Amino acid sequence: MRRILVAGITGAGKSTMARALSTRLAVPYHEMDALHFTGPGWAVDGEFAARVEGIASAPAWIFDSYGYPEVRDLLWERADTVVWLDYGRRIVMPRVLRRSLRRTLTRERIFGGNRETLANWFRRDHPVWWAWAQHGARRTDIHRRAHDPRFALIRVIRFAAPQEAARWLRTVGPETVTDE
Question: Positive or negative, the Cα torsion across 101, 70, 144, 32?
């Protein structure tokens, strides 16, 4: 477990899991949204794909996303482990709602100095709407990839509940990192 992709829908806890794995395994963690959005107005880094490819060329890394379309296959081809947080809507929706509400009310700065605003809540790409609308499609795509012969060498660790993931995480430590 040296090249880890933490996959799931918005609000599943990918970043939290990725940070915890990074700490426990001493493997560098890279926040996908922070690499993607680099400036005001949700500006996308023009060098995003090249930056991700450079990081993914390293011997050890953790990303908290199953990948934006332009880097998705690259990450799946280079990962040795996918930690899939496959939680239902009843789990992710309260999480993403609380997070977005907190970010909106506190005007918390996130990726590239951007903020979630009340006006953003009415956009189709707002995290709350995105999590609801994309839940089934994301689950289907991750399942398809997990069973795709191209990615047969990837170890997929799937969790259907946060308690399962928390139990597993307690068993993970530096000795878990291998050169497989």
Answer: negative
Q: How many helices (H) and strands (E) does the chain have?
A: 7, 7
Would the pTM of this model clear 0.85, i.e. be above it?
yes
Domains of the chain: 3-88+137-176 (3.40.50.300)
What sign results for the dihedral spanned by CA atoms 55, 60, 62, 66?
positive
The pLDDT tens digits of the residues spanning 99-151 come to: 999 999 999 998 888 899 888 888 888 889 989 999 999 999 999 999 999 99
Residues forming beta bridges with residue 30, ordered by sequence position: 63
State how far the Cα of 170 lies from the Cα of 122, in Å rounded to an integer: 39
Residues in a beta bridge with 158: 84
Planar angle of CA 9, 107, 18, nearest 5 degrees: 35
